[in-house]
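Please check the following for our workbook:

***
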Amino acid sequence: MGTQPNIIFIMADQVAAPALPIYGHDVVKAPNITALASEGTVFNRAYCNFPLCAPARYAMLAGQLCSKIGAYDNAAEFKSSIPTFVHGLRDAGYQTSLVGKMHFVGADQLHGYEERLTTEIYPADFSWIPNWQQQDTKLAFQDMGNVTSAAPAARTMQLDFDELVAYKANQKIYDLARSKDKRPFFLTVSFTHPHDPYTPTPEFWDLYDDKEIDAPAAPFVAFEDRDKHSQDLYFHYGMDRRLPTEQETLSARHGYYASISYIDHKVGQLVDTLKKTGQWENTIVIFTSDHGDMMGERGMWYKKSFYEWSLRVPLVIRMPSAGQPARVNNSVSHLDLFPTLLEMAGVSDCSGLQLDGTSLLPYLHNRTPQTAPLPRAEYLAEGTNTPQVALIRDPYKLLLSADAEPLLFNLDEDPLEQNNLATRADHADCLQSLLLIAQAEWDLETLRGDIIKDQNARRLIHGALKKGAQKSWDYEPRQDASKQFVRGGDWCADAESNAYLAYQGV
């Protein structure tokens, strides 16, 4: 690609692709993401590889399925010995910075980043370990309170975090423009919105009228008609104790849409700062989310499911060059980002890393990759005690576990996933071919045993580390005030001159 471009990687948390106007939603207001998409490539079917915060990010960063790297849940250690695309970019000459959420668990809180400018929003220790050997505790985790309490708020923990992230990220873009370090930059900006609770400020809540909020397109599915995993999640989320009313469902969607608009505003600020500092024309911008949110579709909520609103994520790549295709219809996944980013940086050979994805760069130049692994997904955490896996071969999606009958959907003909084709004779050959691929990828019985052993080991370690002297793994950002503003020995005029950055225009 010639000169290495800068890259800004923007992540939201829990944005379902079907909730964005770039994918056809006619209620949600996201003009800045829409504008970014108009200059870039939009992947119509991009999937996360694990619909849960930490493992989704581990798989994306490592370019490998979570079952291969032992990243089973939100309290799984992300091992320091696992290469990430951040290591690859840093090795290729990039300066690497992280602002915001990555949900790293373990003593290594960098994983290739040279610096983190904020702390983490969630714990870095083994606090949140599921227990697949205790049936009565594996399902009791979360209730519907974050759905039923949706409303505008003056301030929340999530808002505190994202306001800090936005401030630090925009400041970092200014600092990069003035830096004497002329390496290209890779800057990750990771927000926590629109993750529940759905409580944005009135400024964004008031963008929507109550009357325009749409009801879920996929109707409520009675408990007895749900698949086994969806039944488990029904109890896991406390829906047996409290179901949202119709009005509460609409209010939750209202808050969710407003929270997406809040993130859209932050995306607009980042783009504006890139333009003001003259860095827009040499910066690749990528926008995605770790996973989605069911948002009442099928009567389901939050994530942890393989249905589209939970598993399918936005993916927009804006390259500073002309002639990009507007849309890619082939299914892709976050596993493809590792080889994509390294190829963008000029590293074309990742064969020694045994990655599970393939570079998306050909799509950005109107070509189709010669080889394209099928998107795969796993769910190995709380709310179940059996590995759940999914496999996508356009237009079919297979959902599979050892304790339930398989599900098979044609996403072209049945986008709401209401018709299970696995029981139909005319799809027997399709089902069998996908089952063979899945069986070659996963040994579900062995995987379950490995997960339980890992849970037990972490539980022992977590208990031990809570006794005696304790050392926190939570990241504490460091700031050297001796290098800020004007300090002893500096000429005031020199300090002001060094900090001056000419306005480049928007």
